[in-house]
Amino acid sequence: MPEKQTSKAIAAIPAPLSGPDGDPSVTVLMSSSRNGRRFALVSNVLSQMGIHHNAVFPVFRRLKLRGLERAAANSRFCHLRWKVPKSSNVLITDLNKENRHGKTIRISYDFKSHLFGEQVENSLFLPILFHPNLLNHKSYEQAEELSQYKDRDIGVLFAGNCDRKTYDNDRIAEQFGLANRHELYQAALKLPQDMMFFPKTKEAFEEALAEGQLKDKFVWIDTNLFRVPQSKWLALVASARYFFCTPGVHYPYCQNLNEAMACGTVPILQYPQYYLPPLADGENCMVFRTRDALEAVLQQGLDPKRESQWLTRSAAAKAWHEAHLSLNVACSRLAEFFDDPERQEMTWVLAGK
């Protein structure tokens, strides 16, 4: 059965986006394996739109596709190629390459210039979506259902990799003025003990959750200690009122914010200015600017007397995500570009490596 598509996207897609011999006429050409995750994002969005596309990999890279790339390439809509076809109606690339036969979508990783410099006209600002393995309409439908759940069992949640070697780097501070994930983990360790819960095992976490002990706790799950099955990830996120959003390795963005907001879980973060439009403190998120301010923000999120504030923020977070950062946004904006004969180029702003 074909992957489910949004009716809005289907209505705008020209039929068919294929060459005269039935071959796909959308080509994806990404520069290196260091952006394999971004290739998976782009390819999965096209697959969710029902668009067949060529994925061009040099010989040696094709033999060494990593997990997310391989999973995206396994879609029936993705067709592996050794080299760029002679002509493509649409070329999607992060290389300085011209498409003389049709439209071009240029992938840009320079989101700061887009946000704070001269904004690129005719652009799609979608730096990150759900995790590539969850980047499908079924997952978004699940998040929609979970967002309706209001009696939540966790006050504030973080769950992710806290590996010091990976996340303790100077790039986040030097380029973005933010504390990195490892620094925030160290700050969390210094918070009052009665506020925090650091489960060491899956069993300890599940027992505390079942006994209703976590409604006023900041729960920090280090996935190096125990893994959260991806099939249960969105349900876990939706069990919390707030999600503590730490930076990724190279960029502020991490898919956890997208997944949280889609579930009606309000993000707590340092970097509202890095979204377009910016997130609004107290409306669709909660913001701390320094590690010293972190405890006060968390106390607000954990205060049971502020339940009505959370309900308002939850609805606002969900609405903001749907309007600006969702799979529906990606599908509809791309479909509009494909269908407009006057538009030959578009920039897609991604967070890459």
Main sheet specs: 7 strands, parallel
What number of structural domains do the residues give? 2
- Relevant CATH superfamily of the largest domain: Glycogen Phosphorylase B
Question: How large is the count of helical segments?
Answer: 15
Shape: elongated
What is the name of the CATH architecture of the largest domain? 3-Layer(aba) Sandwich
* Radius of gyration (Å): 21 Å
What does the model show?
This protein has helices spanning 7-12, 36-48, 59-62, 67-73, 111-116, 137-146, 164-167, 171-176, 181-189, 202-210, 233-237, 255-262, 294-302, 307-324, 327-339, and strands spanning 26-29, 53-56, 78-81, 90-93, 103-108, 123-125, 154-160, 196-197, 218-222, 240-244, 266-269, 286-287, 345-349. With 353 residues, it is an alpha/beta fold. The strands form 2 sheets. The protein has a 7-stranded parallel sheet with strand order 3-2-1-4-5-13-6. Strands 8-9-7-10-11-12 form a 6-stranded parallel sheet.
